[in-house]
Write a structure and sequence with these properties.
This protein is 31% helix and 13% strand. The chain is built from 10 helices and 11 strands. β8 and β9 form a beta hairpin. About 8% of the residues have low confidence.
Length: 349
């Protein structure tokens, strides 16, 4: 296949190898530009007449559900953060969220009761997918690896087609990654690789000048993905092929465990002792909202999940209190046990 250009300066390295989810077989993987896009294509493949989704949910995912055109019925959570549901209509799908990446066992148990389930593992990159018909496992990359975009839909229920851009096993050939070429992957979905060069600068800015210097750029990049459901970019596909996943997992487990050891007696959330989580969820009770402000003043940045529920009609609910009071402390691969000691001392001091 003749290329459009020859010669000139060297571009970003885009050699593509295996990534973390390649182990589950290319026929079970759809690579997207975000976790929201992965949920969107799960709905496209599952074709449910209705979706049951939690109120305690990212607002951008809520918008994605609206974009899908499928009827949505929202439910509240019980004390164990599992669906407070008595029945699910025939032909409907249930959206389960692995909150904070610490609920893998509970989610697997609940998923076994239903025939069509979408599992949102955006907070749990290392959670094992359930590979049975009717289960759609969704993952997000940017919460675990420093890449400009990326999501995965992993399922035994993906449609299968062979195309000129695919090998006889359905995996992508290198030629399918040349500029201007559609990616037709093993799933049967034809997705254009997203073009993210205009939304990549926050990563380099933060590396050279610090996280706060790139905050607005990061916000702009996040807005770019609202309503944009495309394939994974060539940049992220390459970067994810070279990430040290064993190191990332080990560091997150170590940091989480050290924080939990220090905070479990004053944490209102009951958590596993160790897990390679996105962040460590610390619920100190009502003082959480004020504590978050104090931490930000000291350049300890913690997200609010999800502030859209901090409103009068939810006041008094579990969802309201979680959104308002839970503090999410960083445990990612940038940090070590000394950092965790510092964080634990700050939130309990």
């Amino acid at each position: 296949m003749r290329r459009e250009e020859y010669g000139g300066y060297l571009p970003f390295e885009t050699r593509v190898g295996e990534d973390y989810f390649s182990r589950y077989g290319e026929e079970h993987i759809l690579r997207t530009n975000s976790g929201k896009a992965a949920i969107y294509y799960a709905l496209k493949a599952a074709k449910p007449r209705k979706v049951y989704a939690p109120h305690y949910l990212c607002d951008s995912v809520r918008r994605m559900l609206v974009d899908s055109g499928i009827e949505v019925e929202y439910f509240f959570l019980d004390e164990e953060m599992l669906p407070r549901l008595w029945k699910v209509e025939k032909g409907a799908a249930l959206l389960l969220v692995n909150y904070y990446g610490v609920m893998e066992e509970q989610i697997r148990e609940v998923a076994g009761r239903f025939s069509s389930v979408i599992i949102d593992n955006a907070h749990a990159f290392f959670a094992e997918p359930i590979l049975r018909e009717g289960v759609w496992n969704v993952y997000s990359c940017r919460k675990f690896v420093g890449v400009p975009d990326g999501g995965y839909l992993v399922s035994a229920s993906l449609p299968r087609v062979l195309t000129p851009g695919a090998s006889q096993t359905g995996t992508l050939l290198p030629e399918a990654l040349t500029p201007g070429t559609s990616m037709v992957d093993a799933s049967g979905f034809q997705l254009e690789p997203d073009r993210v060069s205009a939304h990549f600068s926050y990563l380099t800015t933060s590396l050279e000048y610090g996280m706060n210097a790139a905050y607005q750029e990061k916000q702009d990049a996040d807005r770019y993905f609202y309503g944009n459901y495309a394939g994974m970019s060539r940049i992220s596909r390459s970067m994810l092929s070279t990430a040290d996943y064993a190191y990332i997992r080990e560091k997150r487990e170590e940091n989480y465990s050290r924080l939990h050891e220090k905070l479990k007696d004053v944490n209102q959330l009951k958590l596993p002792d160790t897990v390679p989580a996105w962040l460590y969820p610390f619920w100190p009770g009502e003082r959480g909202a004020e504590l978050r402000k104090e931490l930000v003043a000291e350049k300890i940045y913690t997200p609010t999940l999800w502030r859209e529920l901090i409103r009068p009609d939810f006041e008094g609910s579990l969802e309201y209190r979680l959104s308002r009071e839970v503090i999410f402390l960083p445990v990612d691969q940038r940090y070590d046990c000394v950092d965790m000691e510092e964080l634990a001392g700050r939130v309990t001091g």
